[in-house]
From TrEMBL:
InterPro entries: Cupredoxin (IPR008972). This is Unannotated protein.
Amino acid sequence: MTRKLTLIAAVLAVALSAAAGSALANGGAHAAGSKTISVRDSFFSPKSLTVSKGTTLRFVWAGRLPHNIVGPGTNIGARVRGSVSVRARSGSYICTIHRGMKVSVRVR
């Protein structure tokens, strides 16, 4: 009976290891996560980033001036405080209130 359980445990360990490796190789959801972008007075930080498919962008207001965010599939109204999370899409996210305030995002 002990040999049988040991064999079953070994087979399960190999199967789980293979499944985990496959999920990572295929860009599984666990690889995506979240990235924070600070919305500061007249600039975003960072100014550009590359993220995995399925990543969430978390915009966090950290200045004293109001900012809005317009970008691919995103239209967040002006605010001074708080945070908003959106699904990352490739393209530029801008504040239309402050000319030149932009963050570029690339999704792979």
